[in-house]
Each structure stands twice: as C-alpha cells, then as structure tokens.
Design goal:
This protein has a single domain, classed as Arc Repressor Mutant, subunit A, CATH 1.10.10.10. Helix content is 67%, strand content 10%. The protein contains 6 helices and 2 strands; from the N terminus they run ααααββαα.
Length: 156
Amino acid sequence: MTPAEETIARLEREFAVFVRQDRAALGRLGREVHPDLKVAAYRLLAHLAERGPRRPTELACHVGVTSPTISRQLQHLEALGLIERVEAPDDGRAYSVRLTDTGHRRVEEVRVARGGRLGELLGSWAEEEVRTFAALLARFNGSAATPPPRRCGGAE
C-alpha cells in the first residue's frame, strides 16, 4: 500500500468511527425529544426546524426514502405531537407538515445539547484549530455533495 493509499484508508476508518458515534449520539439525543423517537425521525424534525414546513414528497427526497416510508414516519411524529399537517399554501388539495410548538421546543433542546457536547469535545483545541477544522469540513462537504439518486422535482 502506498503512503497515499494508507492515508485514505486511515481517513476512511476515521469517517466510519465518526458516523457510528454520531448515529449513536443522535439516537440518544433523539430520545430526549421523545423516548419513542428514532434517529431518522429526528433528522426529519431537524430539517423541518431549519427549513420550515415541507411537503411529504420533499421530505422523502431529502432523506432518500419512498413515499410510503415517509408517510409512516410522519404519522408516527404526528401521533407523538411533534408535527402537524397544514394546508399547502399553493395547492388546497395538498398538505405540508410543520413542527408543533412542542416539536420546536424539543428540537431546540437537542440542538443546544449537541452544541454543548461538541463544545466539550473541542474544549482542548485552540480556537484557530476549530476554525480550520470547520473550514476543512465545509470544503469536504461541499465537494462530497452529490445530486439525489432519484429526481425529486426540485426539492431541496
């Protein structure tokens, strides 16, 4: 293995560790939103908190699942009182979903907890190291962005 291949292999291992740890942390934090909340559902809530009301088809494209899957996830979140259906402003036959007040409050609590945890993890780093890490991660994420595997009708 060449030094470049070894570096890439090490990076791949570190990504795998990061993803595994982040998924576990999201699961724990999601349960703080509601004990019955799954990781995928928390990601939907966070997306709604960031982007506002969305149609189910847009959410399905965002997370890369089918319409029946997103429908089941949204029904679960609605039953937990975290989202509600609202008439789509541009089409009275369609609907969007949005966070309830409880949903907003719970997502914000988790966001603050995640930020606190990240602050703890980076507490021993110099400010310049944190800025550099953030810039490099943003650069990587920008280059890693790919179009969704299926057409989503212009949804984000």
